[in-house]
Amino acid sequence: MKRVIAAVMGLVLALGPVTVAILAMRDAMRTVHTAVPPGARTEVEVAAMVREQRRDERRDLTEALVQTCRARVGTKLAPDGLAQTGPDRFRFTLVPGLDEFNRREMHGCLEDARMQHLQLDVLRLETVLPNAEDRSAGRNG
Amino acid sequence: MTRFLTWTTLLVTLLGTGSYVLIYLYRWEWHRALITGLFFLAAEIALVAVVLLRRLTRLELAVNSAPEPQGEAPPAGQSRDAQVLARLQDSRVERDHFVWLREASTRTNVFVPVLLGSGVFLSGLAWVIERVAGGGARSRVEGRLAERLHVLAFPSGPLVPSDGEMLAVGPQRDPDAHLRLLLGPGTAR
Q1: A28:B35 CB<8 A
Q2: DSSP for A74-91, written as a single string
């Protein structure tokens, strides 16, 4: 009888933290879209690392991955497209802007091991509101 | 030392890959989560295999080192398998598969040739009866059948009248009713 009670107590004690962990994970990964003010845009800057033999294709590979990820979150690339700000750095703008969960998804999609021979590091990803005075929303997801 | 290293490696791999699966899922990095998950699965299977092998080894050792049953001192230098084999051979029951033949030979050995002989005799008798009955009855049966089939047989003459017969009959003469029927309405009066 004592062993049974001890086993049940152990199970309850183990289940507690596990339950808390599962609920926390659920909250963190749940997709809840929040409204983004019209006219907002998301500015992204990435560093692209490619294999030596595909150096010349850096821009093409980066653009391909950016297009894939922006389609995944349901947004569009701004008309000015991908601008190269350094030997391995690119900047682009997404319109309409992304909410918190979409930013997180975009960040993960860009940094994931998705495309062969290409590895992106997201240096900056923030949603800029149309009103310059309210430029505090959504730092990196 | 080897066991310690094995267990440490397995546990570290499990914890690390399991944690990173969750971390990558949180970060929405699905591909990395999938790859890490595969490693987690492999480590888990390895852990299960190690545990099972340890249990099997322990069982094997327990069986091999089990004490001998009371009252049966094993002969010196004999392995456990040899002991079991010797016990089986000692308890074997000898069987004579042809004892029924030996017992039958004293009383019933004359029965089989008698049966065979009577079988041959009866077959011969049946053959004789068949030949006799067939020879006598066949001709009479065929004759009776021929009489019955006589009415169905074709006439000896031709079925259609010849040109000479037609001329002989002519249109004015009264033809035979059967002939008129045969020749058709053209010869009707």
Answers
A1: no
A2: T-EE-TT--EEEETTEEE
Mean pLDDT of chain B: 81
Question: What is the DSSP-derived secondary structure letter of residue B128?
Answer: H
pLDDT of residue B143: 86
Cβ contact (<8 Å) for A113 and B31? yes
B25, B26, B29 member nearest A111 (Cβ):
B29
Q: What are A56-79's pLDDT values in tens digits?
A: 899 999 999 999 999 999 999 998
- A119 touches A51 (CB < 8 A): no
Mark which residues 1-30 of B lie under 8 Å from A by CB: 22, 25-30
- Residue B32 has phi, psi (to 5 degrees) of -65, -35
Is ipTM beyond 0.85? Answer: no
- Chain B: residue whose CA lies nearest to A109: B29
pLDDT at A75: 92
Nearest CA in chain A to B36: A113
Task: Reply yes or no on whether the pLDDT at A121 is more than 70.
Answer: yes
d(C-alpha A138, C-alpha B77), whole Å: 83
Q: Is the dihedral of CA A73, A77, A81, A86 positive or negative?
A: negative
How many residues belong to chain B? 189
* C-alpha to C-alpha distance for A139 and A127, rounded to whole angstroms: 7
Helix locations, B27-171, DSSP H: 30-64, 80-90, 99-107, 111-149, 163-169
Contact criterion met (CB < 8 Å) for A29 and B25:
yes
User: What distance in Å separates residue B52's CA from the closest CA in chain A?
Assistant: 24
Question: Tell me, what's the pLDDT at A133?
Answer: 45
Task: Give the residue-averaged pLDDT of B66-81.
Answer: 62
The helix/strand/coil state of A117 is coil
